[in-house]
Amino acid sequence: MGRGMGCLGGKYITFLIEVMYKAGNRPIGSVGLSDVKANDHNASFGIDIGEKECWGKGYGTEAARLILKYGFEQLNLHRIYSEVWSFNERSLRMHLKVGFKEEGRQREAVYKNGTYHGIVMFGMLKDEWGKLEPTERDSPLP
Predict the structure, then answer these.
(1) Helix, strand or coil for residue 104?
(2) Which of 23, 63, 69, 87 lies at a CB distance of 3.0 to 4.6 Å from 31, suitable for a disulfide?
(3) Global pTM?
(4) Residue 131: which CATH number?
(5) Is 54 left (phi over 0), alpha (psi -120 to 50) or beta?
(6) pLDDT tens track of the chain, all 142 residues?
(7) Number of compact structural domains in the chain
(8) DSSP state of 53
């Protein structure tokens, strides 16, 4: 993960996702926590890999694990939640892979390209994060 920006007082934190090449780093997306609620110890997770040629290479999974680790271990959050459009198969798989649990569905909640789609709601609790195997929650980065 690359440079970070944000303000917990403003209730969000975002990190730039960069791929490192010999010629230099290249930004490919962002990952973050928003709606950080200090009193409730929870936040909303979001990620976007905008460069299609970088899809399916594990960058999103790695970035998700890093921001979850940051949220639970540095910010001391109790719960991190997320919403995914039901047709976004890559994102659905990534959420399950990093340990999110499906908490519910909203039927036909989004109208996109002339069709209604559902939203899948995910959540993860701090104790669930702690029970994941180290290989499931830690990034391969030093």
Answers:
(1) strand
(2) 63
(3) 0.83
(4) 3.40.630.30
(5) alpha
(6) 444 445 455 577 877 777 777 777 778 888 999 999 989 999 999 999 887 877 888 888 998 999 999 999 999 999 999 999 999 999 999 999 999 999 999 999 999 999 999 999 999 999 999 888 776 666 554 4
(7) 1
(8) G
